[in-house]
């Protein structure tokens, strides 16, 4: 800790009567006499921002009505005023017009986002056969376990079950 030294010429300047003091800014007790105290604002807006903003979704009827209203605009700047009023971009309008030309029902319904999946019939059949094979392999393991338990039980009772050879192609 440093010791304070009193050096001439480095003293704190004196405050004038009209200056604010530090406690006034922070709401402390020292305020000029006769000055009314102003209470802090009652409602403070919440500064928190949503973690992930929600994407706007437009219904087919809304898109159709905006395209019709834009097509009906006669004055210069009327389309811009329509877009500003609705909070839309010009790209929305051009996309919706192109979709309307392609077909009313197919063009104005929302599209599923992401990569389109195309599955070959052979791949689909392969998946089904692999699932069947896995299921049957599991059943075979369970059956062999049950047979082994039955053999051990028969051996304990004094009636052993003879081993029979099963012809397997893969072994």
Task: Describe the 3D structure.
Helix 2 crosses helix 4. The protein is mainly alpha-helical. Helix content is 47%, strand content 0%. The longest helix has 37 residues, at 121-157.
Distance between the termini: 86 Å
The whole-number mean of residue pLDDT values reads: 79
What share of the residues lie within helices? 40-55%
Tell me the overall shape.
elongated
Largest sheet composition? none
- Determine the strand fraction and express it as a percent band: under 5%
Low-pLDDT ranges = none
Return the structural class: mainly alpha
What's the short version?
With 171 residues, the chain is mainly α. It has helices at residues 22-25, 60-72, 78-86, 90-102, 104-108, 121-157. Among the domains are: 60-108, no CATH class; 120-162, no CATH class.
Topology, please?
Layout: H1 22-25, H2 60-72, H3 78-86, H4 90-102, H5 104-108, H6 121-157
Helix pairs in contact: 2-4
For the structure shown, list the relevant keywords.
6 helices, 47% helix, mainly alpha, 0% strand, 171 residues, elongated
């Amino acid at each position: 800790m440093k010791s304070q030294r009193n050096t001439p010429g480095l003293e704190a300047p004196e405050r004038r009567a009209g200056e604010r003091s530090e406690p006034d800014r922070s709401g402390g007790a020292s305020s000029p006499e006769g000055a009314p105290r102003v209470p802090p604002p009652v409602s403070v807006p919440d500064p928190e921002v949503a973690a992930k903003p929600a994407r706007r979704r437009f219904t087919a009827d809304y898109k159709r009505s905006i395209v019709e209203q834009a097509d009906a605009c006669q004055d210069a700047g009327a389309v811009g005023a329509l877009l500003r009023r609705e909070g839309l971009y010009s790209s929305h309008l051009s996309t919706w017009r192109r979709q309307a030309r392609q077909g009313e029902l197919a063009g104005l319904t929302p599209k599923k986002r992401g990569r389109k999946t195309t599955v070959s019939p052979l791949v689909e059949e392969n998946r089904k056969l692999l699932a069947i094979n896995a299921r049957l392999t599991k059943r075979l393991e369970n059956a062999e376990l049950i047979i082994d338990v039955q053999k051990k039980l028969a051996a304990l009772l004094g009636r052993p079950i003879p081993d029979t050879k099963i012809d397997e192609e893969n072994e």
